[in-house]
Structures
1.
Amino acid sequence: MHGHILKLLTAVTSVILLQNCSEPEAPLPQLSFEETLQLQLIEAEPGAVITIPAGTHALTRSLSLNVPGVTIRGMGMDSSILSFKNQIQGAEGLLVSANDFTIEDLAIEDTIGDALKINDSTNVTIRRVRTEWTGGALTSNGAYGIYPVQSRNVLIDSAVAIGASDAGIYVGQSTQIIVRNSRAELNVAGIEIENSTFADVHDNIATSNTGGILVFDLPNLPVQGGRNTRVFNNQIINNNTANFAPEGNIVGTVPAGTGMMILANDNIEVFGNSFTDNNSANVLIVSYHITGLPIDDVNYDPFPESIFIHDNQFSGGGTAPDSEPLALLQAATQQPIPDIVWDGTVAPDKQAADILCLRNNGEQTFANLDASNAFAAPSFDSSPHDCVLPNLSVISLSSAQ
């Protein structure tokens, strides 16, 4: 009897022990860097600082941020690298639609599309950021490196942009802009200000692009009337890379060897720059008509006006023009293309001096291509442009102090 009771108690005890000795809980899986960063961007609150540690961090999907007042900060543009070389989803590397946004001290590499796009944002600071396509100048590269659009109070400082198939540093349809102390290299357009107002572009280096610095105003965009841009104290050197823009892009019309190109923009002041060895022309000033494209926007003004180019230095250039009119001009003159070339197209109610004034550019050379008359009678007389325009105002941003 006692033996049976002992066996029963032993069996019950064994069942209880088995019920209480369940398997230990498995540890939660550790999030990858990509998952952690995406979560930080989603859960960020105003005032947050998101730190990108040193190292090359592989990402496969686009990142986005829409919370105001956030800072993304790395350990340096050559130390903290977001690599999208194996990207499988998304049109950008990082897309931001947020006011009071700062990004600094990191790199974004090899995105499928644009590297860093800022859309409809106010008070944007991009400081010591590098965007790069590491395979060189390829049509398959993303279009834009640093790309604020429809934004206000934009500072781009000490940035580097390499390899964009459209523009390395581009600010479009925006106002109150400073681009300074930056380097654009091996892009189709090095630095481009498009359909924007009140911009200072200064103390930059634009080299080995198709076109060094572009100031454009284009039709059929929500914001038009580009004007009031100062381009000064830049080094615009050896921008002779063959144009590798995808077919159909407007920037694909830019001749390789263009130092600076002003297209249909108004109130532009260009001074204190050094133009060196840009093999089509150091400076081109043209109307939209030079593209040969139709204009179906009734609100669009295709003519540049009030362009003041003064106190610049020119050296070399114009020796291998990548443009049929310029090549014909060189063949006819057996001389390099002049430093400053105007297409000669004038609105019906304007005079040459309303379009372009030139002063104190050393031993500058000049050509009026007479494009509106089928290039029939080019002129090298700059005297109609010996005039002065008012200096434009300085752009001042609180973030730029």
2.
Amino acid sequence: MENRLYDLSQMMPAPPAVYHCLRTPQPPHLNGNLEKPVWQKAPHSSRFVDLVSGQPAPLETRMAALWDEACFYLAFWAEEPDVQAHFTRRDSFLWLENDVEVFIAGPDCYYELQLNALGTIYEVFYIWQQALKRGSFFDRPEFDLYTHEVDVLGGYQDSSRWGRHPRGRRWAFLDWDFPGLKWAVRVEGSLNDSSDLDRGWTVELAFPWKGMEVLAQGRPLPPQDGDVWLMSFSRFQSLEAGRRLEPAAGWALNAHGVYDSHIPECFSRVVFSRKEIEL
């Protein structure tokens, strides 16, 4: 099943990035430490760029991904001289301070995960309103509009420039949690201590394929050799120059050309390969 995409290339300063996701012969032990061989052997992405302009981000940020028969694995390296994170309650608005984010798209839906240096997470599952109908793939209890915490996402967040997305509005299921999700964070420095210089923080994530069913919408799980999935890898960073700058800086594996993370057409292309890393 193909993703139902519109041609929005006019908003992008360059084509979406392509990342080749290799297979791992052994699953990583999730503790946030990316010095382990499995992540050193995985292909590391290019440096993240400004979400709008495509210029290199001032703080180095990269990602890597792997897969096996059980899970899709993801890692982030985030340079930060003063690692700060204060939200501790799950599903807090992490983008208001500093976070890393991943979006995973299906043909008629997408999933958003945010994570800060304390290990606090925020999750939402979005379904295009035109796709959520009685008798459709999403006609199931977990997406019942009357029994779940649901919001509406309209057009582009930067609507002053681009107006509405051609597919219209999305239902945002705020209480949806990815089944079996695991994660770990490691801070290289002193969290919330501005008296010293930190190196940054790192993240490991494991998404079980069983939890991907609603995102796959009938696509093979795990993906077959050569299958392409749309995913966005990004980071939002609160910056100060005498005062806190608004909005927060947004960096991603590839630019969207607009300050908005919610455009599947602009997501990076993840190509799954049966080639294994060598440990």
3.
Amino acid sequence: MATEKKNGKKAPADKVQLWKREPGWDKLREGEEAILDGYCADYIDFLSTTKTERRVHAQLVELAKKRGFLDLDEVNKQGKKLKPGDAVYRAIDGKTVLIARIGKAPLAEGLNLVGGHADCPRLDLKPYPLYQDEELVLLDTHYYGGIKHYQWTTIPLALYGVIIRRDGKKLDIAIGDNPGDPVFCITDILPHLDVDQSKKTMREGIAAEKLNVVFGSRPVDKKNDDKEVSQKAKLNILRLLKATYGIEEEDFASAELEVVPAGNARDLGFDRSMVLGYGQDDRVCSYAAARAVLDYNDIPEKTIGALVVDKEEIGSYGRTGMDSTFLPNCIAELVAACDKNYSDLTVRRALEHTKMLSADVGTCADPDYKGVNSDGNMGRLNCGLQVNKYDGGGGKGGASDASAEFMAEIRKVFNDNGVVWQACELGKPGVGGGGTIAMYMARLGIQVVDCGVGLMCMHAPWEIAGKIDIYMAYKGYMAFLVNA
């Protein structure tokens, strides 16, 4: 029987050990807790300032530029050639980006990639969102991704996004998180009058069309009063928007505005062992993937990359989603920049020999909801990075289902590099399910497995992650990129 390492020590070859899913604090190496604390502090800052996929993209591109990464499209336009050790990025539509460092091996031998998504469940404003009812000015919304409607009522909300004015000027909107900013909210009925509401299911109690955001109530000043206008509070809001941003109501048609929870991510627990924040699905993994590539300063054996995409929460569709040509196009651009003679066959070989971690979050056992747990296969908070051989729903519907050989390779990389990890699945078969970007990568011939941080309260306005798991994502992704 082969001897395996556990906690850095070799177990006797003839000794049988039970595999345990246990907290990873005692498995940290000497001096590693300080590194963990520093990384988690950086992550909290990142999470607090990247409330939308556009802001994630902007920060990652800015970090890449500061560290000397070149725009791959510009490299090819100028006819330059990349060599091992060179660092590049390629971005699209301000939402999706690949950050890569060129390795020694030819691209035809494949890349090592870690890919996550930057979009999160939220409320999007409709094309013409402003309306007035009962002296209140409200914003009409369309929810994005899987949410529980009732969780979004009576909490402070912020408004982020872009507006393209008639004259073509792009305005960056951010209201609700800066000191002194107003916040917004969605109302709920008082318990004294909820007889009818309380008879409904949780899903029905707050209808999607009732997720309307309170935006104002003050009528236009009397000196500016237009007696022909009935919606005077709405008129006042429009005048304020005109004075502040120079926008007309029609400009909402060329806008992307997102309603998200207001407030910063925070340490959770008296022992500060967890993080509470909005958007950890999936920015906890995307940040770790990007940092792993950005922080690696040597020349890797194979080209390594972090892929941060959009639209995962609604099926990965659209040109910024994973079910698009963005990644194959990126590989083609890399081949053009690295090889003297471009070949489509090289691109196809590069894809088929690529190995990838689909860096999306999993779930953790909740002591108050044990009925959905898959007993010994359920992930647990602070027990390490989760590896999910498959996801999907029902009979593995929508899953890519990684091979035993690839699982063995990932297991060895993590064990050899001191990564605390746990093999998991989402929950009991038949209870529910979920998908990631893995199936779209597998379609391209890429070897891929789901590997991410387990969360509690996933898709809620405020999600919980354990600091061991947060740090092990960074450590695990770095180990995979360099050693797979």
4.
Amino acid sequence: MTNQLPISSLGYVRIGMNEPQEWADFGEAILGLQASRATDGRVQLRMDSAPARFIVEPATRPGFIAAGWACEHDDFDRLVGQLERAGIALTEGTMEACEQRSVQGFVSGFDPSGNCFELYHGRSQAADTAFESPIEGVRFIADELGLGHVVLPAPEHTATSDFYQSMLGFAMSDALTLPPPVEGAPEMIVYFLHARSPRHHSLGLFNAPVPSGIVHLMVEMTSLDAVGCCLDRVNAAGYPLTATLGRHLNDGMVSFYFLAPGGIPIEVGYDGKQFDWSDFEPTVSTVGDIWGHEYQFADE
């Protein structure tokens, strides 16, 4: 059944900013995304054939707003019915909101830890031109694999993990447990969950709250050199690193982390493993990295 998971991939994310243009400037100059601005102040950024993977909205409090999860129409109807029968409060997207997301329909709700999710179907591709990065040589591993992945705060860890698996149909890839970051703190637990996409995980759930509303958001480039050049741009622009270059154990990704505008932690990676879910056994890990990834979190 795992090759028939109802969620196909992470379709888009919504981010709030006091001034969305700041994120547009950052996205183009640092990540190599392609930005456009709407008349209502929103900024949309492309990375592939999708009309937008990042939707940046005016907000009084900067931070992460929601993850948008892609479904086929039949799967969408089935998931909505299942959520409604379970008593999960859902809000149906208006015609205007659907147009903003370039989808035929969507609903939004909240998981047990308070993270906003959106389920959608019928998203169109960008009809005008192919994606063209403003930075020469930048391309992303996206399209049918989706934007990348998000790791979300889940203080209600067991209930939130159960929700995404039993209600939305994600499946476990890896359960990672790490020692406490400081003496007296609880151990750190991250559950990595996969969708139909062959990415090792499209969603991670971390057992603690974070102020920005997101632990990190990952984008994957098509070469190690592209990642290294992005790291140079991050350092030159003065964005604080939160983890040095390294390779993860569970998904094999070579990446680094830094803090983007709005307090959004970004992972930029390459060489992530892809899996055939019809022949996969979830793993249990106590080590996060093969090498590197020296964490150096910025002060909140």
